[in-house]
Amino acid sequence: MAVPASGNSLSLLGIKKEVEVNNYNDTDNTYTNVSLTELAVNTEINTFGLNANEEPNDTTPHAMSEWYAYDHDATAPFSNTKAVYKDLSTGTANAISFTDTDDTFNFTGTTAWTISFWVKAGWSSSLNDNIHFIIGQKSGATKQIEDMIKIIYNESTNRIECRYGNVAGSGQWYNQGGWLFHANSGAYAAGYAAAGLGTTYWSSSNRGYVNSDNYTMITITKSTTNTAASMTLYWNANDAGAAPVQTNSNSGSRSSYPLSTTNDRIWSLGSNGIHSGQSGSGLQRKTGNNTATAYNDLTIWNKELSDSEVTELYNSGSVMNATTHSASQNLVGYWKWEGNGNATRSNDNFTISGNSEIANL
């Protein structure tokens, strides 16, 4: 049962019935008074009719017409028309971030995980710095490596790098893998073939293999083995293999300084993190030097996706509804950026600050 389509009268009581028991015309239940604001803020919106002017949400003002053809138990339509753009300015005022308070993303050295996102390069080849794609680190960290996982693009060496590890007291450890793209030889040949950049570095003027919107899907998977070799990079659905450049740094005991399973972690997109106690204003390093770098559909999984599962996620270059993926039971974080930073799968919503913004693809 659904709320009537446009052109029919709407009843606030009927909408309440649809929300609670999926039956606009229900006669078997009694209901307390309710306002449009309460409905819009507290309702899980699954789908709405083509005649609706906008999705019922927590943005005022609210209107009865927003609810035309709303169907509480229908399957949500998939939309991919927007992305999030990280402003070129550094500092926490322009952050895209959230704090994980329920330990969903507190991966350890022996945890299998996958992080995947679509990115549209906004930097030029003269940046000579790192583009920080995503970082998770201990909330209130005094050093960036505390309970850290980060994925960056090092423009000066034309490498994607992924590092994870921890520091405590005078000791630290981390594992880092690096994939280089402009050398078609030896261990680098897989990355060269995967990216399609040729001998020129990745930039807004040389995007390599992209979809029709000029986005590349970057995916890094990790097995349960606690070494740099445990990570694999995919450019779109192209397997670049284990990192040809590997660092396993250990100036302290990993068993003494494990990644915590309980410390709250802050996750930031497009910058090197929000971390107190360090010099500067937080979120240091450049995010680009040309136009804002754009990100679309970020997914985090609590398993190492297989080759075929990454190919499925790539979906021939069409961003897919990840909740329909064959491994969706392992999808623990999913942000589509369709109008806000709210999660499709997670208890954590991104806050988009300052001049960072949601915009059309």
Overview of the molecule:
The chain is mostly beta strands and 361 residues long. The chain folds into two domains: 12-67, no CATH class; 82-360, Jelly Rolls (Sandwich), CATH 2.60.120. Helices cover 9% and strands 29% of the residues. The two termini are 34 Å apart.
Topology, number of strands: 17
Determine the mean pLDDT: 86
Residue runs with pLDDT of under 50 for 5 or more positions = 49-54, 276-284
- Characterize the largest beta sheet: strand count, sense, and whether it forms a barrel: 9 strands, antiparallel
Which structural class matches the secondary elements? mainly beta
SS summary, helix count: 4
- Helicity level, as a percent range? under 10%
Q: What's the CATH class of the largest domain, please?
A: Mainly Beta
- The helix-strand sequence is HHEEEEEEEHEEEEEEHEEEE
Round the Cα radius of gyration to an integer and report it: 22 Å
CATH architectural grouping of the largest domain: Sandwich
- Amino- and carboxy-terminal Cα gap: 34 Å
In the residues, how many domains can be counted?
2
The oligomeric state is: single chain
Q: Based on CA inertia axes, which overall geometry fits?
A: globular
Might you state the CATH topology name of the largest domain? Answer: Jelly Rolls
How large a portion of the residues is in β-strands, by DSSP E? 25-35%
Could you provide a short overview of the structure?
The chain is mainly beta and 361 residues long. The protein has four helices and 17 strands.
Using brief descriptors, characterize the structure shown:
single chain, mainly beta, 2 domains, eight-stranded antiparallel beta sheet, 17 strands, 9% helix, 29% strand
